[in-house]
Amino acid sequence: xxxxxxxxxxxxxxxxxxxxxxxxxxxxxxxxxxxxxxxxxxxxxxxxxxxxxxxxxxxxxxxxxxxxxxxxxxxxxxxxxx
Length: 82
Fold this sequence. Notes:
alpha+beta; globular
């Protein structure tokens, strides 16, 4: 991703089935629209762990919180195209 800033950030943790579901939706929508995403484990940062422990997966679009727990492909698509 050199030179590209990801518009979508997924905060989650390994072994989280909801995170796996969210990742699949994000990957599909980003691939469809030519967008990129990054994934950050809240286990790697105590502050993120405290902030998002009960909401993962948490999705941000363009630096603003978009969703948590479930990711709607239609809602994500709209956020990336409007």
